[in-house]
Amino acid sequence: MLLNEKRILVIGGTGFVGGAIAQGLIEAGYHVRLLTRSPKKARRIFGDPAEIVNGDVTIPESLPQACKDCHGVLISLHAYKGTENFFKVEHKGVENIAKAAAEAGVKQIIMISGANVNPNDTAYFIKAKYLGEQAVLTGPIPAIILRCSWFMESLPQMIKGPLAIVVGRQPHPIHLIAFRDLNRMISRIFSTPESGSKIVCAYGPETWTVHQALKKCCTAFSPWRPVVHLPLWAFWIVSRVLGGQFPFLYDLLASTNRDPEPPDTGEAARLLGPNTVTLHQWLEAKKRG
Q1: Which pLDDT tens digit goes with each residue over 174-200?
Q2: Superfamily of structural domain 3-150+177-204+263-275
Q3: How many Cβ atoms from other residues are within 10 Å of residue 182's Cβ?
Q4: Does the model's pTM come out above 0.85?
C-alpha cells in the first residue's frame, strides 16, 4: 500500500504534540483523519488537507465510524486537569479507542507517552498513562508506545517576558527530541510491516539539563535574557492561585525534578534508525524561519 493510500486516524491532533504529528503525517503523504471535539478549531488549524470527524474518546459510540477504513491510529492524549479526568481520558478513553480500532480492522497503533511512565509510580498522571499503555499493548493490534523525552519545541514556552524560567532545579539530563525526529519515527512505523507490540524510547541524540538547553535557546535569540529558577514551593502557590492546568503542571515538574529519565536502551535506533537532530541544528533551523 502506498503512503497516500494509508489513512491514519490522529487522536489529539489539535494539541501541541498531536498537532505537530498530524502535520508531519500530512507532509509525509498520509491521508490524515482527525478525531476532535472541536471540528471548527481543527479546520482552522489544518484547512482542507485533513479529514475531520467529530468525536470524543470518552464516548465509545463516536469511535467506530472514526476508525473505519483506517490503516493506523495515532494516540496523543493529554487530560491536563482533574485527577478523575486523567483516568477517564488517558486510561478509559484509550481503552475505548483500542476496542473500536480492533473492531474496525486497524492494522497499527502508535501511542505517545512519557519517558518516565512506569508501573511503580503512583502519581495519578503517570498511573493513568501507564494503564492506557497497557490497554493498547494487550489488545490484538500491533502497537508501538513511544515514551518521549522533553521536546525541543517546548523550550520557547519557558520564556516569559524578560525571563527564561525553569521550575525547580531540574537537575537531571534529558534526551531532548525534535518534532522532526518524532515524525520520522512515526512515519517509519506506519510505512513498515507490523512487527508486534513494543515500548521504545523516543529520545534525541544528546542530553542536556533544562537549564543548559534553555540557556542555549536564549543565547541564540536573546542573549540578554537570563535563565532563572523558580522554586517549586513558589510555583505550587502560583498553581493554586491560577488553577486550571497549573496544578497538574506543578505535579509534573515536581516529578521530573525528582526522577531522572530512564537510560536509552537503543532499541528505537535499531528498529527505526537513529534520531539525528541536535539542539544546535534545531536552533539554526528556527533562526531560518
Answers
A1: 999 999 999 999 999 999 887 789 999
A2: NAD(P)-binding Rossmann-like Domain (3.40.50.720)
A3: 24
A4: yes
